[in-house]
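Structure (tokenized):
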């Protein structure tokens, strides 16, 4: 990646977005995007000059939409708007998450639909380019623009709130002085342009989807390893089964498993412990294929949202209009993440059933030897995690009450769906690591070698755990940093090729 990344109007992919968030290179707008910002700003100025009734420019917000603002109030109103909406509460977001929000909003500015002042865009870029990360708390958005969280970022441009700079948490005004900058001066619509977008839903959603896919990749390995550990019957992986059921996700997962299990001793039907294994194993490619297709839907929604505009009012440069819009209604993202969370709960249920089977198999075959030095009762913990996953699968997008005296009476709930899904993914990872752990334990107790493509997994587990006895909790904690080599999001989610 070059020293400076240009937001030049090219479509941002999910993979490039994550790269930019992690690498945090210097960012600048391309020449055409500079012009688009300037032209959109001219549209705003023209409406302001002639005193047209425009929401958030010459009128107040929400239930005050029909209350006009005079010229003298206009600048102070924009600043008051930012400070009023900065109602974020709860857990402080990681710097990575805040960078994701900021990058998503910068991409939105580059569209030229916000009408924001070029000077305010420059101030926003200065924060990014100097590594200044606003302190933002997770809760406050209901998915009708991520107002509270974006306002928490915007207030730091005004010199209020706190930021992190060079590893130090400090007042925003001090950080501004460090870089030789002064607080932003907001003109008409600038406050609304800063806060009226789905940038948290986009940024946090992309990061959550990346983590979901990382866990998915690790699960393909842990599942394959447990097949080896319990002498599974692989008849359901026959290509004829895939040919009879035309679902691309199922085909992709089954092909991946066949690759991992190449040259396995399980290829010989005589090794199978049963004519037909439980459905938690036998339907794996069907369940995971469906989960993968659900993830592909989430990826499409996020990428479209990233490369579009959720601004209200929308500035249409071509016609010179400012149009009241509900483009901040991110229902596609919300519904996709509701589905992802149900899929995570189903995957967790399936793993929990297999873990019970692994524990039972290990108990029945205890005479074969000693596996890993992990102590403790396993099955209760797995049942508890699975129960939590099922609770998190309940819909959250239907829970938003009417707000702003009934004017804002519908909201997507996208941030709530994303946050709940991120929690589900963390729990799912614990179950995947447990499957990896118990499968390694059983293979070692039985002195069995898995297929060549899987042998690195038990080796990694043993290397991380060492030889001293430890509890299950300690073992999972040590394994928490284990990651499977991740394919790009584009490769994993492209189910049409």
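Design, position by position:
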């Amino acid at each position: 990646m070059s020293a400076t990344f240009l937001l030049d109007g090219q479509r941002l992919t999910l993979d490039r977005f994550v790269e930019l968030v992690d690498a945090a290179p210097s960012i600048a707008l391309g020449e055409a995007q500079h012009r688009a910002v300037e032209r959109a700003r001219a549209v705003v100025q023209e409406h302001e000059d002639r005193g047209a009734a425009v929401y958030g420019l010459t009128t107040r917000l929400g239930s005050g939409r029909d209350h006009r603002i005079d010229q003298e109030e206009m600048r102070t109103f924009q600043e008051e708007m930012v400070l009023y909406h900065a109602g974020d509460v709860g857990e402080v977001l990681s710097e990575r998450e805040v960078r994701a929000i900021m990058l998503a909003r910068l991409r939105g500015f580059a569209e030229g639909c916000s009408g924001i002042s070029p000077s305010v865009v420059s101030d926003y870029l200065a924060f990014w380019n100097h590594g200044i990360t606003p302190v933002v708390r997770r809760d406050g958005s209901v998915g009708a623009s991520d107002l509270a969280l974006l306002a928490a970022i915007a207030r730091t441009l005004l010199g209020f709130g706190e930021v992190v700079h060079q590893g130090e948490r400090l007042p925003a005004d001090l950080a501004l002085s460090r870089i030789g900058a002064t607080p932003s001066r907001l003109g008409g619509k600038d406050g609304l342009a800063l806060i009226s977008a789905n940038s948290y839903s986009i940024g946090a959603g992309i990061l959550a989807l990346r983590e979901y896919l990382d866990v998915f990749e690790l699960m393909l390995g842990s599942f394959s390893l447990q097949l080896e550990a319990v002498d599974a019957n692989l008849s359901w992986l026959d290509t004829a089964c895939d040919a009879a059921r035309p679902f691309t996700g199922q085909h992709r997962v089954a092909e991946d498993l066949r690759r991992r299990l190449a040259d396995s001793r399980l290829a010989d039907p005589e090794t199978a412990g049963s004519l037909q294994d439980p459905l938690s194993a036998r339907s794996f490619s069907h369940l995971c294929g469906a989960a993968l297709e659900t993830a592909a839907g989430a990826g499409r929604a996020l990428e479209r949202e990233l490369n579009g505009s959720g601004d209200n009012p929308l500035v249409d440069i071509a016609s010179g209009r400012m149009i009241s819009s509900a483009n901040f209604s991110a229902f596609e993202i919300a519904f996709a993440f509701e589905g992802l969370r149900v899929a995570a709960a189903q995957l967790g249920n399936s793993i929990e059933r297999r873990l019970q089977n692994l524990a039972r198999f290990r108990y029945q075959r205890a005479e074969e030897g000693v596996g890993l030095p992990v102590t403790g009762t396993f099955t209760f913990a797995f049942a508890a995690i699975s129960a939590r996953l099922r609770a998190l699968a309940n819909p959250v997008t239907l829970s938003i009450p009417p707000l702003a005296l009934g004017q804002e009476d519908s909201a997507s709930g996208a941030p709530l769906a994303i946050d709940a899904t991120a929690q589900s993914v963390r729990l799912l990872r614990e179950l995947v690591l447990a499957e990896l752990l118990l499968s390694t334990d059983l293979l070692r107790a039985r002195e069995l070698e898995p297929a060549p493509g899987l042998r690195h997994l038990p080796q990694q587990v043993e290397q991380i755990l060492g030889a001293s006895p430890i509890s299950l909790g300690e073992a999972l904690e040590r394994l928490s940093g284990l990651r499977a080599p991740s394919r790009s999001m584009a490769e994993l989610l492209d189910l049409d090729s």
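Reviewer-requested clarification: The mean pLDDT is 90. The chain has 19 helices and eleven strands.
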